[in-house]
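Q: Two folds, back to back.
A: First:
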Amino acid sequence: MLPLQGVKVLDLSSVVFGPLASQTLADYGAEVIKIEPPEGDSTRHTGPAAEAGMSAVFLGSNHSKKSVVLDLKRPAAREALMALLADADVFMHSMRPQKLAPLGIDPETLTERFPRLVYAGLHGFAQGGPYAGRPAYDDVIQGMSGLSALMEQQGGEARYLPTIAADKTCALVGAQAILAALFQRERTGRGCFVEIPMFETMVAFNLVEHLYGRHFEPPLAAAGYPRVLTPWRRPWRTADGHICMMPYTTQHWQRFFNEVGEPAVASDPRFADMAARTRHIGELLELAGRFVARGTTAQWLATCERLEIPAAPISRLDDLPDDPHLVATGFFTELDDARMGTVRFPGVPVKFNGTRAPVGMPPRLGEHTRQSLEAAGLSAAQVEQLITDGAARAPSFNATPEPTR
């Protein structure tokens, strides 16, 4: 039995921030019902697909869920949503706050009607400030939170990280906050409104190490942790490739410089202890890199294993499904789908009592509309009327799937 078995989550979010948060809850055992508009989540059409509406990016953050289509612009669809909420534990959305009250799904309305409900608002910016209600996407938040400036400080050019770091980081914080609210409800009997703003979450994320000297008043140094900002912090070039090697402790560096025949360097005042190395980290890494370049990757991997210095080769994304450790631990999951064939997913990283939770197929658009609404107490005739009127949608899977690339 998974920890969240029996917990029901209604998720109105789209793209990645909210869907990845609810996918995490699904991974832990929750029943996650994805409420989609008639056109579906935009990521259903982002990236390659073996079936229209089931693209790669959608698969990445929507497995193990159900899909219900409701057109919340219609009163009948909003009434159906209330039926689904009657026994829900969590309601979450990523809509701009000003759009909620006209739909009757603002936190005040729902938490009053459903006192045990955990209501999670996944916003761009916290309420109460001048940015409240602004639209926000990953690129915008990377820039505003300091990430792009960190890239410029290290490499000379303002850039975004080549991953949707803000969406994914905030998703994990969102899942954590929802779990904390559920735990509080178990003690108090009442739910609460949880706000997870992207901007504040990423500022907090970036400043863990980078607030640095600004922790103090007056500041003892500028913001920015030197060790990770030096342009020399990168995989070291070897004679035939690269290696990710990290001598970190004083003992590591002593072993490294002994190995390359320069033991006196480890005693250089610039490098003798952690504080000194932090101040002179660029010089240290540049110097060490000259020695690393003389040996092959294989030689350095063997040397680092012998010296107990953390090291690894660079892995390309296409190599990861065949990584020997991931293969041995059964990390990747392959599912055989009647319409798409074999589909691969990363596994759930955590295990409970030594067991990794299973990964289920992501839902087709509206695949569970009938099933979920009837489970919420609507009759089959009522559900069919909603579908006929356009307030809900349920698909027919008789047509031959249309591959898209």
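A: Second:
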Amino acid sequence: MLTTWRRYVQRHPKGTEAVFLMLLFAAAGPASQVASDSYGELDWFPGYLTAAVACLALLWRHRYPRTVVAVTAVCASAAGGVGYLITPLLLAPVMVALYQLAVRASRTTTQGYCAGVIALIVVTAVLSDKYGHPWALKTMGPVFWLVVPALTGAMVKTRRAYLEAVRARAEHAERTREEEARNRVAAERVRIARELHDVVAHHLALANAQAGTAAHLVRNRPEQAAQILDDLAGTTSSALRELKATVGLLRRHDDPAAPLEPSPGLARLPELVAAFGTAGLDVEVTVEGEARRLSPGVDLTAFRIVQEALTNVAKHAGVDRAQVRLAYRSNLVTITVRNDAGPTVPPPGPSASGGGFGVMGMHERAQSVGGTLRTHRRPEGGFTVVAELPVNA
């Protein structure tokens, strides 16, 4: 029922306004005369005229609320001055004007106008009383009926401001949520791109080294060439498996074809060392301290850093030996990869030959789990990569 009435009001604003003003005129004019006639006969003309002027003034209450309050207050005071009782019926146009002023104006303005109207009406009620009404009726009554609309308008204004603030916060939260979702998607794309870089760069470097070694040995040592070719097949197979597992991250969670193979970690370090051994790079691994179980993200990061550092040694250093040292502390694991001699690996950033970002990728990986990574050239020749990672990211 209430919803239907609101829809009707929204569809017929002019008709609703006309009915509303007619009701106010009936209250301030005829109804006030009937209420006053019980104490003595009054001429109807002054009351009807002041009620009509006050109701017409209300047509401009939205644009000029201060002026309308003054006009309606003067009309009510004039009606009271000629003998009309100052009742809520007579004060109805003033109450509407005060409510509109409280909704649109500041609190200070509303308080000032409300105090002025109360003073005018109370003085009129006291001076024009011919029937000996009680003092409380002539003062407290008008004060109450004039303060109520001002307070109601102030409450409505506060409520509207609160709802507007809630709506603004909701819109801001929605925009922030969308931006956060875009940032997470971008971060996930970067992570997957980094995984693809590590997988492709490592395995292609190994495959290239194994193929070159096999081509060199195929004429003089065919049995060793056959072994290296077998290892080459294993390298390419491992590359395909890791590529499938990485690209599988782009699948939906309910895709039955999604890979179930876990991400690589330091547990696969012997397999990684053996793969580099077949490519002609002898890797020595030392462990200091008691090996601890790393969180999955740190474990993957540690493996990828070792993998990328050894790949850089195999591709750029021109040596056949490298050292990997794992040092475990209470809440930290330090990974050191170095080669003792030969040309140094390219510094972070695009290389002159191919625009690789291997060292930069290692820095980003370490930072993503709360760790650090340092790279430097050794004075006696070679290059060192040192990564410090928390046991639990």
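Q: And?
A: The two ends are 59 Å apart (CA to CA).
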